[in-house]
């Protein structure tokens, strides 16, 4: 009877976790008279898959502390949580546990570790894990190729792809091509990008998904082929999603195409009604072209839709492995006054070095002074200020959930120039490595 009970408790936890209802899963889990391995694992993977990485690691930590058995599925959940958080110390700790439990040579765990380190900004560490793996499959290669591409190491990514399909004779999958196309896009390799996009379908029989189209639109758009990019979107065999139109809008901002920008923005406003960044991008594109009437229309639209809340959040992992979260205009961190004071001093220093805040990153109709105040409340600046206050090494890593704005990008470049530090910011699209006043993205993001 007892055994049967245990199984039914567990199956309820698993069912809730699989359906993404982590609140109910947690409720049942807490009440479980006897928690078995399956229930624990369901909690860790459930949290990880539902974008609750902090919770996933909490549960994993409890299991590790209790000396419970660790398996491949569980490790994969914990690894994915670290990747989402971009937390370097936690990542190293999870790798240690994997090795202690005999998963050091496991191909699934190893592939996860490659992906995790790349997403934590430690691309060299990802390469080391990759090189050390005896067995490599399509997931291992794909993780490495995507990782290299997101860090702007386009040539390495393409070289690895060629090695994978020729020497290693591993058949690529759709994720592999995301990495290859992103690499081509980053390096401005239009001809190669077109070649691989065609090869994907013709040689490997992989039909392009909306994500692949987003890469191609990004590739063409960055290279200034905005009209061709729009034509590609129109010819799509699958429904374009936000990333496709977002890539097009981003290209319009860089190349000043207001007509196509309006088309892309119209779709984005429908697909992502809360996405304040899209309004900012459109408004900036219009402002650069001097279309002020259109700019005020966008502002009016934002007012009517009551888009006020900025859902941006930036994370910074402290020396103790604790992950600190900062929201835009956030006053909730226990060291807020210290952080703000240090930030003001830093801004003064940057201004002496030539930094002029990019006020048009704020689209609200407010005074210039207010614009600057809002800009200085951006989450990545707060995270950076806290990072400088508590830093022991020479690299600050910040993970942001949304695209980094023009002003924060400029700000980070100046900080990397006047302070003896490197800054690595992961935004929702790619990595920015700031060093000596320059960024690895070359100003295209
Ligand atoms: Zn910003
Ligand atoms: Zn950058």
From TrEMBL:
A GO MF term: zinc ion binding
One GO term of the biological process aspect: RNA modification
Limits of the DYW domain: 354-445
Intervals holding PPR repeats: 36-70, 106-136, 137-172
Domain of life of the organism encoding this protein: Eukaryota
Keywords for this protein: Repeat, Transit peptide
PANTHER family per record: DYW DOMAIN-CONTAINING PROTEIN, PENTATRICOPEPTIDE REPEAT-CONTAINING PROTEIN
Identification of the protein by name: DYW domain-containing protein
Organism for this UniProt entry: Panicum hallii var. hallii
């Amino acid at each position: 009877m007892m055994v049967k009970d245990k199984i039914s408790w567990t199956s309820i936890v698993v069912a809730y976790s699989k359906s993404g209802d982590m609140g109910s899963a947690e409720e049942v889990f807490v009440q479980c008279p006897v928690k078995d391995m399956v229930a624990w694992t369901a909690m860790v993977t459930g949290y990880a898959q539902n974008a609750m990485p902090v919770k996933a690691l909490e549960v994993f930590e409890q299991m590790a502390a209790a000396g419970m058995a660790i398996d491949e599925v569980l490790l994969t959940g914990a690894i994915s949580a670290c990747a989402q958080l971009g937390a370097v110390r936690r990542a190293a700790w999870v790798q240690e546990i994997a090795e202690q439990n005999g998963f050091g040579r496991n191909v699934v765990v190893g592939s996860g570790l490659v992906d995790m380190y790349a997403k934590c900004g430690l691309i060299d560490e990802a390469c080391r894990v990759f090189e050390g793996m005896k067995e490599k499959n399509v997931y291992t290669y794909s993780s490495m190729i995507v990782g290299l591409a997101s860090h702007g190491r386009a040539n390495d990514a393409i070289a690895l792809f060629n090695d994978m399909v020729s020497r290693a004779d591993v058949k690529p999958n759709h994720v592999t091509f995301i990495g290859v196309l992103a690499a081509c896009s980053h390096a401005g390799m239009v001809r190669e990008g077109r070649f691989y996009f065609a090869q994907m379908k013709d040689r490997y029989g992989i039909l392009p998904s909306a994500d692949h189209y987003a890469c191609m639109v990004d590739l063409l758009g960055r290279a200034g082929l905005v009209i061709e990019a729009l034509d590609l979107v129109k010819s799509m065999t699958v429904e374009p999603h936000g990333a496709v139109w977002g890539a097009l809008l981003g290209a319009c901002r860089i190349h000043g195409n207001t007509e196509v920008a309006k088309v892309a923005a119209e779709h984005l406003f429908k697909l992502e009604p809360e996405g304040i960044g899209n309004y900012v991008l459109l408004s900036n594109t219009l402002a650069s072209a001097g279309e002020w009437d259109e700019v005020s229309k966008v502002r009016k639209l934002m007012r009517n839709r009551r888009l006020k809340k900025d859902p941006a959040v930036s994370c910074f992992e402290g020396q103790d492995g604790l992950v600190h979260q900062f929201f835009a205009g956030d006053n909730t961190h226990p060291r807020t006054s210290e952080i703000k004071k240090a930030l003001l001093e830093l801004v003064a220093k940057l201004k002496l070095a030539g930094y002029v805040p990019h006020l048009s990153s704020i689209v609200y109709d407010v005074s210039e002074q207010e614009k600057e105040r809002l800009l200085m409340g951006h989450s990545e600046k707060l995270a950076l200020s806290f990072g400088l206050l508590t830093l022991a090494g020479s690299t600050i890593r910040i993970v942001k959930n949304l695209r980094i704005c023009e002003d924060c990008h400029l700000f980070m470049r100046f900080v990397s120039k006047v302070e003896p530090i490197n800054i690595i910011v992961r935004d929702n699209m790619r990595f920015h490595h700031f060093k000596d006043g320059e960024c690895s993205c070359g100003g295209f993001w």
